[in-house]
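Archive entry. Fields below.
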Amino acid sequence: MASETADALRPKRPPPWNDPQVRGIAYQVLFVGAVVALGAFLVHNTLQNLQRQNIASGFGFLHREAAFGIGESLIDYSPADTYFRAFLVGLTNTLYVAAIGIVLATILGTVIGLARLSSNWLVSKLAQVYVETFRNIPLALQLFFWWGLLRGSAPAPRQAWQPLPDVFVSNRGIVFPVPLHDPAHPWMFLALAIGVVATWVLWQWARRRQAHTGRQFPTGWAGLGLIVGLPLLAFLGFGAPLRMDVPALKGFNFIGGTALSPEFGALLIGLVIYTASFIAEIVRAGILAVSWGQSEAAMALGLTSGQRMRLVVLPQALRVIIPPMTSQYLGLTKNSSLAVLIGFPDLVSVANTTMNQTGQAIEGIAMIMGVYLAISLTISLFMNLYNRSVALVER
Amino acid sequence: MVQIAEELPLVPERPPPRTHGIIAWLKANLFNSVFNTILTLLALYFLAMAIPAAIRWAFIDAVWSAPNGQACRGSSGEEAGACWAFIHEKLRFILFGRFPYDEQWRPLIAVLIFIGMIVASCDRRMWGGRLGLVWVGGLAIVGVLMWGGMLGMSYVDTTLWSGLPLTLILATVGMVFAFPLGILLALGRRSQLPAVRAICVGYIELVRGVPLITVLFMASVMLPLFLPSGMTIDKLLRAQVAIILFTAAYLAEVVRGGLQAIPKGQLEAADALGLGYWQRTRLIVLPQALAMVIPPLVNSFIGTFKDTSLVIIIGLFDLLGTVNAALADAAWQGFSTEAYVFTAAIYFCFCFFMSRYSQMLEREFNRGRQR
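PREDICTED_STRUCTURE:
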């Protein structure tokens, strides 16, 4: 009798159309089915359209001759090279401008962010005006503005401004001298590498010694000495060879030296100024997130204001700063694709030219998207690794 | 007693430092340390260099009316100040672009409707279902005004839509349609069903990993290939679809932040009440989650508004596009600085207003958490 009641009270297995598990599987099958059907429909249409327009799909076009010139390039390139090589030129240009941009934007953004926190009213207001202005204007407009300023308002090469001796600013860009190739240079790079490695070893040793004995070691000064001093010694050891490739006006343009084109300059200035306004807010928020009690405790321990910043506030602020900073770095890299607007030959503008010449739109867009996805994933991977190294270790 | 008092040297005590007044304020905020004094002097030097030069360029030496670019530059051929005559001449083209000249009152009213709706949405008393109706009605009126073809207005093709109305349409329509899509994606990303979750995560990360330009390229070049032969959609709609699909992925992440902030007890309470998934989501989860993310949603809208300037890549004439077209006029060459400063001011007004509004909301929402 008792067991019968228990059996009656036990919930019966619901019919399959009311069973959450069965329903879940059914929903997923339906959803995946719908997505696959949509994808198949699009692929089918695409194949038909391609066939009708007689466009051969595939990446075979990459081995054909590109036959278009590229204004500036970090690797050797001529129009006789293949599309693949042109694509590589675009990729290196993108990475180049993104890398320099990230470094400069971080420096400028941090300075502005600290200025906004300054106790100096004027400085903090100026920083606020900077942030509000550049954050609220579209980047594309800023790029056009700088490009117009660099090209339109700068003088012709014959009347170039000369802010420093042998540095010329004209509407062809900024031309400046570079050291001529010399046997001393590889040795100086070697000395620099040795200096960096030695500093790292020294830093590890000093940290261990401080943990054991409490005695500090001036790692900062020693490291600076190693990193600057060793290459300097190598330079002096070779008799201080200082032959420069000085630009000179020949006809309508400059010969010699190295030039930064107005396109590159406008893109870099625009990206740095725009991104720095966001980084400044991130830095400010990160530092404000560290409670004032931490600073008071540091003062009570007798730390100087520099030590307080370096040892107490920054390590805690970095935890708040790094995740949004990662997305700013990603944003800067993705925004460098706006180069196509002002004609700097980055990945997108090279691929755009390729698509126009060959009609291989799908392949071109797939390659751009693949590259940006790879860059995005790499940057987030590295920043996540770094984030883990500074994250709070809880018991 | 008297003698002791006389022997002590009388040192007059200095008055306490001022705490009120301009001098005290200057001392406390500008000159409170050597470093700050140097910074203040540097900043003052910078301002003394920059402000008079800027005022001279923008006002004193500026040319306010001239028949053409040559006249603006004066006899020397060098431009002394800003040539606002260029803006004066091209104002209607910059704002409304290639929309038929005699019909430009229509986009003007459309812009005013947009501004009215944005301002109305900022009033918290308006929030609710009624506001949705206002937006649907407003967008319908804007559509009628822009397309025409009825009520005695001539038909205007979307290829002629340009300038500020186009920017506003792309941004607001993009946001209105991306919002529900973003909510669905965010719910999908937090779903218990692995296949749904995988597809949503894949979509969100894919779109967030590529620049908007590539999505726009895709819409303009690849979308025609995706469609069955014979079916075409116009360029504006293609750009609009790209902006919606792109924005939805970013909104999904914003909404996810709100979903994650809801305490588990709320979900358990909903389950205990016997609510199903959609009832729980509609009645318990979303009202709380969306209220929490309103400030970042406003920031997303600012981002979308700025990003619409990229549609010039696929040949649409939004506000930035009409400015560039105006600059190409041979009679008025070389006034890019004036043109971009003017356009930047328009963008700035919209974005600054909205970002201030989102900061104000954030402060108000956090008031309960402040002690």
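CURATOR_NOTE: The mean pLDDT of chain B is 84.
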